[in-house]
């Protein structure tokens, strides 16, 4: 199953899965924040850790996309070979950017917010949904092209 010659094809999934661990923890804290602020529930929001984990996730996912495209081209001399996995990957780029820019802004200019904060949370949640789809389509890519 693990062909030595193809080990480099595991770098991209490894980066993305590490990103998923950080991103989903950031999402978990963000959801708690949402419930606290908008539903008056008393949860702790570890602001600094949410920002740190969110930044790590966005950074890893962005690097991972570059690495995935690079190795797809290096291995099969073709972009977009993975079809749906590629398309969902491209769709996640504007969401990565929007989550990062909105989050960065709220972190730097701190004040009480409603809609902007919710918008950041919704975009982040949608990003995490796309990333989940990437796990499924990524496994399909493995079955089709790697194993
Ligand atoms: C995987 C990436 C991320 C997800 C899923 C995510 C999700 C969320 C959610 C659901 C909330 C709560 C929104 C609300 O209460 O309406 C939130 C709040 C927040 N996020 Fe993120 N986030 C991510 C990345 C980031 C990044 C990269 C930054 C900073 C660079 C950041 C900064 C913030 C800040 C400062 C708040 C609190 C805003 C406030 O209450 O005024 N987030 N996030
Ligand atoms: C944040 C989540 C992910 C994103 C945004 C993403 C995006 C991409 C992109 C854009 C490519 C290049 C495709 C092409 O040019 O046709 C790619 C390749 C690939 N992806 Fe993903 N991916 C993600 C997660 C995963 C996961 C979790 C797996 C495995 C379970 C996976 C498996 C693969 C494989 C096997 C390739 C072929 C190239 C290589 O292995 O380096 N991906 N991915």
Q: Short description, anyone?
A:
The protein has one domain. The protein is an all-alpha fold. The protein has four helices and no strands.
Strand content: under 5%
Oligomer: single chain
Helicity, as a percent range: over 70%
Our measurement of the CA-to-CA distance between the termini, rounded to an integer number of angstroms, reads: 6 Å
Largest sheet: none
Mean pLDDT: 93
Question: SSE order in H/E notation?
Answer: HHHH
Model regions low in confidence, pLDDT < 50 over at least 5 residues? none
Describe the 3D structure.
With 147 residues, this protein is mostly helical. It has one domain (4-146). 79% of the residues lie in helices and 0% in strands. It has 4 helices and no strands. It has helices spanning 11-39, 47-76, 84-108, 115-146. The termini are close together. The mean pLDDT is 93.
């Amino acid at each position: 199953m693990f062909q030595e010659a193809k080990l480099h094809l595991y770098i991209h999934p490894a980066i993305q899965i590490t990103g998923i661990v950080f991103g989903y923890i950031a999402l978990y804290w963000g959801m708690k924040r949402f419930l606290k602020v908008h539903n008056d529930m008393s949860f702790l929001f570890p602001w600094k850790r949410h920002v740190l984990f969110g930044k790590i996730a966005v950074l890893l996912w962005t690097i991972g996309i570059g690495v995935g495209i690079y190795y797809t081209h290096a291995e099969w001399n073709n972009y977009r070979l993975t079809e749906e996995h590629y398309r969902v990957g491209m769709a996640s780029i504007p969401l990565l950017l929007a989550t990062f820019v909105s989050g960065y802004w709220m972190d730097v200019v701190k004040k009480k917010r409603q809609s902007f904060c919710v918008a950041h949370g919704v975009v982040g949640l949608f990003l995490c949904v796309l990333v989940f789809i990437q796990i499924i389509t990524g496994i399909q890519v493995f079955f089709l092209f790697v194993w």
